[in-house]
Amino acid sequence: MRSTRTITTDVARPPAEVFALLADLPGFPRWLDPSSTYRATVQVSDDPIVKGTTYTDEVQGMRLHGTVREYEPDHLLVFHQARTDGKLAITIRYELAPVAGGTRVVRTGEIVTSGFLAAVHPIVVRTTVRENERMMKRLKEYLEGGTVA
Fold first, then answer.
1. Max intra-chain CA distance, the chain
2. CA dist., res. 85 & res. 72, Å (int)
3. DSSP conformational letter for 118
């Protein structure tokens, strides 16, 4: 099964700062606390990241192996992560555009499930959307509350 969801938020910071924070996978712990869904991003192959960088996301008792698919500074980041058995794959696309007073961040997530996870697809989507909303809220709070280190 396949589902796509988009979240849009405006952040009162320039695109370069928003992009830098999203692209700093090893730095996620300084602004994105673990939750019941997301634990950590680890084993990042490149710092700073580039197109082709690999990483692992630890989420709800499983590991998703990821790759940076697109990397256009200050404009576009695309991440793809999946279980090794192929039963869950997630593609996350961040599009950044300058707007008056800051940056519009459009986060589009595509979730594909198969096998036993297809049976609980609506739960996977609901849980993922809730986590995506939390992440976007923290991104905005962090960037608007201080400067990027």
1. 46
2. 30
3. G
Name the residue type at position 33. D
Contacts with 18 (C-beta within 8 Å, 6 or more apart), sequence order: 11, 96, 103, 105, 139, 143
Q: What is the mean pLDDT of the chain?
A: 95
All domains in the chain, ordered by first residue: 2-145 (3.30.530.20)
Say if residues 110 and 119 touch (Cβ distance below 8 Å).
no
Tens-digit pLDDT profile for residues 93-141? 999 999 999 999 999 999 999 999 999 999 999 999 999 999 999 999 9
pTM of the model: 0.93
- CA separation for the pair 56, 141 (Å, rounded): 25
- The closest of 91, 94, 93 to 80, measured between CA atoms, is 91
